[in-house]
Amino acid sequence: MCTGIEMISKQGHPYWGRTQDFEQNFEYAGIRIPAGTMIESTYTPFRTKRAVMGIVWAQDVHRYPVVLDGINDKGICGGSFYFDHFFRYAPTDEIRKSGKTALRGEELVTWILTQYATLDEIAENLNDDLGITTDKGPMMGMSVPQHAVFQDESGRSIVVEPSKENGFRVFDNKLGVFTNAPTFDWHLNNVKTHLERSTYRTYTYRDDEPIDTIPLGEPTSGLVGIPADYKPESRFLRAAYAKLLSVEVDDGEAVNQIFQLLGCENTPKGLLRIRQDDGTIFAWTQYTAVYDIVNKALYAHTYDNRTVRLLEFGDPERWGQTQYFRFYGDKPIYVPFERW
């Protein structure tokens, strides 16, 4: 139950942010993984080709570094999002017979960010390189249903979706918005349907059709009629409208603007309830992260502490071994007003 938004500044520089929403109380850590690192904990161990900085699932983090979102040394930035019902994973034997590496769903972003240098490499090679196994893992006791979104330094964005048997569908994401299931093409058509109601626009409903921002002079009813709930299809609409209606900002304002836009999607505890056999649980926004893609900088805060932490990429040649950075689990900090 997560939401992602990409924004391009007035200077033409891309920024991307996401909320990490879930119903289990996970812990998270910042990480730097050098190129050439052997990751033994994945379903099939592999060696990284690219240096990566990001946020990982921190349950026994030194044994199981699962990258949830991050950026690599070539400026590819993105993250994984829950993708229930529509994923099509395969048995390990089937994956290996097709000559691919088998990984679990939660390991998809770790693989992509550590293996590929461009979005074209992802689109052209992923279906030949990787398959997602149905075999269970330590995270949630399953191969976690995931799809992912990635951006590069040009501002281009793609969606990677394991929604076909033993393979992936790859979409260009010209809208720069992302949530969870249903499939990405369904979300695009849903946005266009609402835009035709709230503006004077019409669309052809092609997947590659651009959806332009709504300038201040364009007539629109804004968010009138947009659902207020926290289901993925509703959050996708709110995120799309928030981005399309947002004013243009300079580089110095872009990180804060994405935090503000994602505020339209933040899920307070108790507002999204999920029925289970033994009762009802709730999901909430556990952290929010924003990446300055060109400068390779990560800004993040947690549900309990809105103080924004900064992690910079720096020179990966000087990282040494994999580095971990704690940023989860503390309490709010309240600073008194200063006297004039």
Characterization of this structure:
This protein is α+β, with helices and mostly antiparallel strands and 340 residues long. Helices cover 19% and strands 31% of the residues. It is built from six helices and 19 strands. The chain has helices at residues 92-97, 108-115, 119-129, 184-198, 232-245, 251-262, and strands at residues 3-8, 14-22, 28-33, 38-39, 46-47, 52-57, 66-72, 77-82, 101-103, 130-132, 146-151, 157-164, 167-172, 177-178, 272-276, 279-292, 297-302, 309-312, 323-326. An eight-stranded antiparallel sheet has the order 13-12-11-8-7-6-3-19. α4 packs across α5 (232-245). The longest helix has 15 residues, at 184-198.
What is the tally of beta strands?
A: 19
Specify Rg, calculated over alpha carbons.
20 Å
Low-confidence stretches: none
Element order: H for helix, E for strand: EEEEEEEEHEHHEEEEEHHHEEEEE
- What is the average per-residue confidence, as pLDDT, rounded to a whole number? 94
Shape: globular
| Spatial separation of the terminal alpha carbons | 43 Å
Structural class: alpha+beta
Q: Name the helicity range.
A: 10-25%
Report strand %.
25-35%
Major sheet characteristics: 8 strands, antiparallel
The strand order across the widest sheet is 13-12-11-8-7-6-3-19
Number of alpha- plus pi-helical segments: 6
